[in-house]
Amino acid sequence: MALTADLEWRVHAVLSRSRANGPGARFVVWTQGCSLQCAGCFNPGTHAATAPAAHTVRDIVAQALAEPDLDGVTVTGGEPLEQPEALGMFLSYVAAAGRGSVVLSGFTRREITANARRRAAVVDADMIITGRYNATLRLASGLRGSANQRYWSRTGRYDAAMFDAVPEAEVLIDSQGTMTVTGVAGPVLPMKEPR
Questions:
Q1: Which of 16, 31, 85, 111 has the most other CB atoms within 10 Å of its CB?
Q2: Does 77 sit behind a cis peptide bond, omega within 30 degrees of 0 on the bond before it?
Q3: pLDDT of 3 above 60
Q4: Where residue 193 falls among pLDDT bands split at 50, 70, 90?
Q5: DSSP string computed for 128-173
Q6: What is the rounded distance in angstroms from the CA atom of residue 186 to the CA atom of residue 1?
Q7: Chain segment 81-135, per-residue pLDDT in tens
């Protein structure tokens, strides 16, 4: 199958602007589907492989790049690397637009580099936070949920120290009164489904 921007991407939700999901103001994508099943995961609604609606990489790229004055994008989940082609395509468009990218993955660096599809997916990622969430090592700091998770700076655009100032959580209330709580401090409440 040839990869195009019309490639389907199972996305749980997006958030057009967040400061608790990486350095600066960021567009955030929560992918749908995770087979890792980390005990104590605070996004269990993202585990099932089926998404509420189908989206294309093009849809999500258009939303991300339409947001003005962003420092970059963050892709989390679910497990982004369980849809490697869609993730890789999204990251390539983000990089081409000059925006930075952060990916949170439960896979370790070794598991990513040992698998050709995962390795190809992160070619354009600036920073990857790797490792399964471990509730007994809970940290909730620097965008890491637990102390075993590692920063993997791939391009030098971001370094680990830049994540020290990322808040553990933020509470956002939109014009309709919908509250969203996001970050690594606890459960994620209702988010906006992609258009």
A1: 31
A2: no
A3: no
A4: low
A5: EEES---GGGEEEETTEEETT-EEEESSSS--GGGGTTS-SEEEEE
A6: 39
A7: 999 999 999 999 999 999 999 999 999 999 999 999 999 999 999 999 999 999 9
The CA distance from 36 to 188, in Å, is 18
CA distance 126 to 122: 8
The pLDDT of 139-167, averaged and rounded, is 94
Q: How far, in Å, CA of 51 to CA of 16, rounded?
A: 19
| Domain 8-183 CATH class label | alpha beta
DSSP designation for 89: H
DSSP state at residue 192 = B
H/E element, 103: strand 100-104
Q: In this structure, what token pair is assigned to residue 29?
A: 């994508």
Q: What is the DSSP letter of 10?
A: -
pLDDT-based confidence at residue 181 (cuts at 50, 70, 90): confident
- Determine phi and psi for 50, rounding to 5 degrees: -95, 135
| Alpha carbon distance 161, 38 (integer Å) | 26
